[in-house]
Amino acid sequence: MALSAPSWRLPIRCAQTPIAQYQRRTAASSSNNDGSSSGSNPVLEEYLRNNPQEAQSGRIKIPEGMGQAGDIANSSIFEDERRAQKQTDSESKDGVDGDSVRVGGIARDPRAMATVLDPNPSAREQWEKRQVVKMIRKNGRLTKEQFIKRTEREHLAKSHNMKTSVKKLGMLARQIAGKTIDDAIVQMRFSKKKVAQEVLKQLEAARDEAVVMRGMGLGNGARKEAEDFNESSSSVTGTTSQTLEETASLERKPHTVDIQLKSGQRHTVSDRSKIYIDQAWVGRGPYGKLPDYRARGRIYMMRTPWTSLSVVLKEEATRVREWEQREAKRQRQLKAKAWKMLPDKPIQIQRQWYSW
């Protein structure tokens, strides 16, 4: 049986390039029912506005849908300022309140933001009232804890959970407690413990956070430059900072001080802004599960511990102050226990063996 021509000679389609396929898909997705394209090319539109002659002649022809393919999506983080401004203008035309606040170029409603920023206004007002009453009763005087918090710097850093036990990590915590941050890093660098490398990374991260976030360990020269800059800025704004004056008074003292620690060891402080580890403790974390394959097809589940390390970093100025307070207390105790000669009293009646 002979085959007819249309049945055995089928039309062969030419393979389309990926660019052509992309153009067809983009044109199909961006075209409306009436055949008009919804995509826009901002670069082409600006060029046509600047060159109206070429726009009227119609010599520039862009394939349908190509403008949308090279454009940025509305939800992209790289959206240009022109689109953001256009969006804000459209929102303002839609009837946004005149008391709106612009955050990142976008108009925000303060009442809508208050639900997140100030969820309980009455509680906040009561707290402010209590603080004002407390300040008036104390006549603006600061407590000892508040004075220390304002004049001395400290930083608390907590590490992630490490795969070790409390006993093993507790030895390293006791080893680095009381040492300067540089000495503790050296101890962990040459330690044979496996978890010491993790502790080393956490100490370096805590040191960097203390320098960046708290301004600790900057030295006398850098601290003085920062204080001069803050004083100049405060003089412009008309405000004074008690912290800067007290810190400057501490640095005017002798730089080298020989103190005695709580453990009885002698320690020499040459830089009051040097960072040391005041406290170091461990915290028990969750337990993991690890299979233990035994004989006869038995499997036991082992509990692998996870432990975290927390350190409190302070400056040498704090250690010097504590030593001065201990010395002052010891001097007061010695003065109270010292023997004093009794006052002289006149002799009233004389007897052969005794008198009173």
UniProtKB/TrEMBL annotation:
Transmembrane segments: none annotated. Residues 20-103, 222-254 are annotated as: Disordered. InterPro entries: Ribosomal_uL22, Ribosomal_uL22_bac/org-type, Ribosomal_uL22_sf. It comes from the Eukaryota. Signal peptide: none annotated. Gene3D superfamilies: Ribosomal protein L22/L17. The keyword Nucleus does not apply. Residues 29-41, 232-243 have a biased composition (Low complexity). GO terms for molecular function: structural constituent of ribosome. GO terms for cellular component: large ribosomal subunit. PANTHER family: CHLOROPLAST 50S RIBOSOMAL PROTEIN L22-RELATED, LARGE RIBOSOMAL SUBUNIT PROTEIN UL22M. Belongs to the universal ribosomal protein uL22 family. This is Ribosomal protein L22. It comes from Zasmidium cellare ATCC 36951.
